[in-house]
Write a structure and sequence with these properties.
The chain is an alpha+beta fold. 15% of the residues lie in helices and 33% in strands. The protein is built from 3 helices and 10 strands, in the order ββββαβββαββαβ.
C-alpha cells in the first residue's frame, strides 16, 4: 500500500506523549513547513507521517528525554482535483481515495444538457509541464478506448465544455 505523503494545506496533529505544551494541531503552510515549540520550522511536504514522526522524535530528543512523537493526519487538504464546465456540481473535490475520470464525473452529478461529452479534457501539471489528455465519454461507456479512463492525480482539472 502506498503511504500518504504530506502536502501544503494538510492539517496534522503532532502529539508528544506526556508533553501537552509541545503537542499541537498544525497546518502545512505553502512554504512546505510547520512550526512547533522548541524546534521551530520543519519542512514536511513529501514526507510520510511515519518519517515525520521519526524526524520530530529526533529533534525533540535534543530538549526532552525519550520523546514519543506521533503524527496523525487530521484532514487531507493537499490532495484535490477540480471539475469545471457543464456538470451538475462543478468545483473542488477531495481526492480521498483512488478515482478515475469516469468516477470523478459521477461524483459531480453528471452532465448538464449541452455538455460536449466527446470533448472532455484532463489538464495535468507534472514536473512543471502541462499536459492535456482527452476523454470521450460516449466511447468509454461503450467499452472502447478504456485507457482514456485514467486515474485522477492531485491538482488535475477536468474540463467539460
Amino acid at each position: 500500500m502506498q503511504q500518504y505523503l504530506i502536502g501544503p494545506g494538510d492539517i496534522l496533529e503532532v502529539s508528544v506523549w506526556n508533553e501537552p505544551a509541545l503537542s499541537k494541531t498544525v497546518t502545512v503552510r505553502l512554504d512546505k513547513r510547520i512550526s512547533l515549540p522548541l524546534i521551530g520550522d520543519v519542512i514536511v511536504t513529501g514526507m510520510s507521517l511515519e518519517d515525520l514522526s521519526n524526524i520530530l522524535t529526533h529533534e525533540f530528543s535534543k530538549f526532552i528525554s525519550n520523546p514519543n512523537v506521533v503524527v496523525i493526519l487530521q484532514e487531507s487538504k493537499s490532495k484535490r482535483y477540480y471539475l469545471i464546465g457543464r456538470v451538475t456540481k462543478p468545483g473542488e473535490f477531495p481526492l480521498d481515495f483512488p478515482l478515475t475520470v469516469l468516477q470523478a464525473l459521477a461524483r459531480a452529478g453528471g452532465f448538464t444538457e449541452w455538455a460536449e461529452t466527446k470533448e472532455i479534457l484532463i489538464l495535468r501539471s507534472t514536473d512543471a509541464k502541462e499536459t492535456i489528455q482527452r476523454f470521450d465519454y460516449p466511447e468509454v461507456i461503450k467499452g472502447k478506448n478504456l485507457q482514456q479512463n485514467i486515474k485522477i492525480l492531485p491538482g488535475d482539472t477536468i474540463v467539460v465544455p
